[in-house]
């Protein structure tokens, strides 16, 4: 027989008041629940138009100015006050116009850049390495690494910014430092240095002691791998062809707090539904389709997407994908907090 606490009992009310006076609480008392995250889609047309408008009215300032980075942030409707995409990760879209420099700094939040458009002349300088940025490239700036961005070309560059800033903030581990020797650090390593040093064939003397190091994944390599696996018909029933950007040292997740994936949906392909405790933010590289979220066995909210759109699937929500084109594949880049869940023993998955 269960017993309920009678909150109207004067003795209970007195106990609650006394505990509150001493910043105490009872396990039997209800507590405020965090808002449930919502599946959501951000059309690229809206993102891009706002980003281009920001390029006209928001001047990229110095390192101490509010506009030291010009980004348009994806905000989950359930997290408007936090201005956050998910509870752990923030995805934004950054614009650096011709001749502009985003000055050098470092922070405890890990970050990555996935290039959407550019002519290959702009670069991110990470710990002194010039990393040229072409569309589809993925550039890592692990936590507490110096980094700045410069666009010497004639065309603007646009990329996705993803940071684990909400996780570091929640853990009270947010630190930030501006570079004290000018707007940019000197370039002492050429483009490609990280891939040469940390590739599958590398100097025997390379020792990194488990660090997460700056790294750049080139789109030409990623696309070639996707096409090869797709041609071999090696696919996951729930995600199509799904490849992970592996850490070049450990072979594990891209970074300790952020996993990066690329997937290929064949023309007309519909995947089976599944759900997992990790949440995922998606960016459509090319193609068109629908991701159904919620319910099970195809019942749920349909997020209809096209090239460059972004969408979010919360943790523990049934979802499956459908490529609505009968002729062309769909390619989708995604970031997830799965490595955090796995490291804490909290990741679980259920499939239809």
Question: Care to give the gist of this entry?
Answer:
With 352 residues, the protein is α+β, with helices and mostly antiparallel strands.
How does this structure look, described?
With 352 residues, the protein is an alpha+beta fold. The protein has a single domain, classed as Jelly Rolls, CATH 2.60.120. Helices cover 16% and strands 30% of the residues. The chain has 6 helices and 22 strands. The strands form 5 sheets. It has a 6-stranded antiparallel β-sheet with strand order 1-19-16-21-14-13. Strand 6 and strand 7 form a beta hairpin. The longest helix has 14 residues. The model has no long low-confidence stretch (mean pLDDT 93).
Oligomer: single chain
User: What is the strand tally?
Assistant: 22
Largest sheet: 6 strands, antiparallel
CATH architect. name: Sandwich
Radius of gyration computed on alpha carbons? 23 Å
Q: What name does the CATH topology carry?
A: Jelly Rolls
The CATH class: Mainly Beta
Distance between the termini: 37 Å
Q: Count up the domains.
A: 1
Structural class per helix/strand content?
A: alpha+beta
As residue ranges, the low-confidence spans are none
- The topology string of helices and strands comes to HEHEEEEEEEEEHEHEHEEEEEEEEEHE
């Amino acid at each position: 027989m269960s017993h309920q606490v009678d909150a109207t009992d004067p003795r209970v009310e007195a106990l609650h008041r006394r505990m509150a006076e001493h910043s105490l609480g009872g396990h039997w008392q209800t507590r405020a629940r965090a808002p449930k995250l919502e599946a959501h889609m951000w059309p690229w047309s809206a993102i891009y138009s706002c980003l281009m408008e920001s390029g006209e009215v928001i001047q990229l300032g110095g390192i101490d100015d509010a506009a030291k980075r010009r980004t348009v942030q994806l905000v989950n409707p359930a997290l408007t006050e936090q201005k956050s995409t998910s509870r752990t990760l923030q995805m934004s879209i950054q614009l650096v116009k011709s001749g502009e420099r985003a000055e050098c700094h470092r922070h405890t939040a890990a970050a990555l850049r996935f290039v959407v458009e550019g002519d290959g002349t702009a670069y991110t300088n990470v710990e002194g390495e010039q990393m040229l940025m072409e569309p589809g490239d993925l550039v890592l700036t692990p936590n507490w690494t110096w980094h700045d961005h410069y666009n010497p070309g004639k065309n603007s560059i646009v990329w996705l910014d993803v940071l684990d800033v909400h996780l570091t903030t929640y853990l009270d581990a947010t630190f930030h430092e501006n570079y004290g020797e000018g707007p940019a650090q000197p370039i002492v390593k050429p483009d490609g240095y990280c891939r040469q040093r940390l590739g599958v064939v590398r100097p025997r003397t390379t020792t990194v002691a488990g660090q997460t190091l700056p790294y750049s994944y080139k789109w030409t390599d990623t696309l070639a791998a996707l096409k090869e696996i797709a041609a071999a018909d090696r696919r996951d029933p729930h995600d199509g062809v799904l490849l992970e950007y592996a850490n070049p040292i450990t072979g594990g997740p891209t970074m300790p707090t952020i996993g990066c994936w690329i997937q290929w949906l064949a023309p007309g392909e519909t995947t089976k539904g599944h759900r997992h405790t990790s949440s995922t933010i998606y960016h459509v590289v090319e193609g068109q389709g629908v991701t159904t979220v919620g319910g099970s066995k195809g019942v749920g909210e349909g997020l209809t997407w096209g090239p460059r759109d972004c969408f979010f699937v919360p943790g523990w929500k049934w979802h499956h994908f459908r490529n609505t084109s009968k002729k062309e594949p769909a390619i989708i880049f995604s970031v997830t907090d799965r490595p955090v869940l796995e490291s804490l023993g909290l990741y679980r998955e259920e499939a239809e």
